[in-house]
Structures are given as C-alpha cells and as structure tokens.
Design goal:
There is one protein chain. The chain is α+β, with helices and mostly antiparallel strands. The protein has one domain: Alpha-Beta Complex (DHBP synthase). 28% of the residues lie in helices and 20% in strands. The protein has an eight-stranded mixed sheet, sandwiched between helices. The protein has a three-stranded antiparallel sheet with strand order 5-6-7. Strand 10 and strand 11 form a beta hairpin. The chain is globular and about 50 Å long.
Length: 210
Amino acid sequence: MYWGPQYGNDEIEALLKERNLPYRKADNVAKEAARALADQKIVGWFQGRMESGPRALGGRSILFDPGKPENKDIINKRVKFREPFRPFCPSLMEEYAHEYLSTSHKDRYMITACTVKDEKRKIIPAVTHVDGTCRPQFISRQINKRFWELLDAFRQYTGVPVILNTSFNIKGEPIVCSPRDAIKCFFDTGLDALCIGDFVVTKQQSFNRP
C-alpha cells in the first residue's frame, strides 16, 4: 500500500528554510491536524511513504470534516476544482466501522462501495453519496499508526471516528509525491494547513493548537 518515496524531517525542514516559509515543529502533529479539522480547517497531510494507486490512503491526503453537507462543495471550490457531482470518500477507524457501515469487508483501499447506516448518514453527510453508500478506507493502528492517531484524536474532539479523505492534488494533476510538490499545491489552493512530517505550515496565524 505505502510503497512510494519517503522523506525525513531533516530534508523537509531544509526545504522549508530554503523557501523561507513560516512553520513550526509540532509535539504531536496528528493531534494538531485533528484539532484543525475539528475547527473546520482543510488540511494537507504528507506523511511517510507515498501510497500506490489512484486513491489517497493517508500518505498524501487532503482532509476535511465530513460532518457538514456543505463541506463537499467547500473543498471542491477551494481546493479540488472538480465537478460538483463527484463524491468524496471516508477514512475511518476500523474499530468503529461496524457502527457506521453495513459491511463485514474491511476495505483498506477505497475500492468497494457499501451502505452507510441510516442513522449515521446525517453525521457524515459529506462522504455519503446520494444513494446512501460510500467507498471507505478502514484504518488500523498496525497499518498506519500516525493516520490512525489522527482519526482517534478527531474522534475525541468530535465524537466521530471518520474524516473526509481525498487525494493531495488538484484536478488534472498527479498526486503530490515530494515535499516540493506538497508545498506548491498548498499555496496554489485554499488549504488552511499543511502537516508535513513533524512540521505544521499555515497561511494564517489563527491556527489553533490543541
């Protein structure tokens, strides 16, 4: 799943300094990202090895709160610049999947569709398709610890162990691979924060720490 390139903190920080970007090192980058998501920020997430395939699986992802129906349109207008009818997918903690989805299949790749339970559709409307289905990614601590920690922190802030997860790119471009790619996409779009390695880069000083 995560077979692509990986970049260390030293390499990332050297680039941030080279570009003279405002950044800081986070004590817990997963928790800071979760706090930003709970505060309705759109977050670029660049961690570990790049995932293989067409889906964002927590290595090169753009993340948003799935709890408001209008968030799908917001992320389309500010970041993705794609057709409004195209749906977004959820990543969720494997431990809570049975509470939200009617499936016994643990899909880790956003490939298969399943039904969102009726009582949960109003809780995660931004990742529920018009027919009541979604294409989920099940996240376990063993497979992607840092992404799981982000989901768990978001659950503690909001009560919801699910986030909207889309590929870290804009329409017509490939998913970002390197830190340079991520920084360019960050400044070319309406992303609020970039969590890259252990560092947080923002465009506004109002970004709240947990």
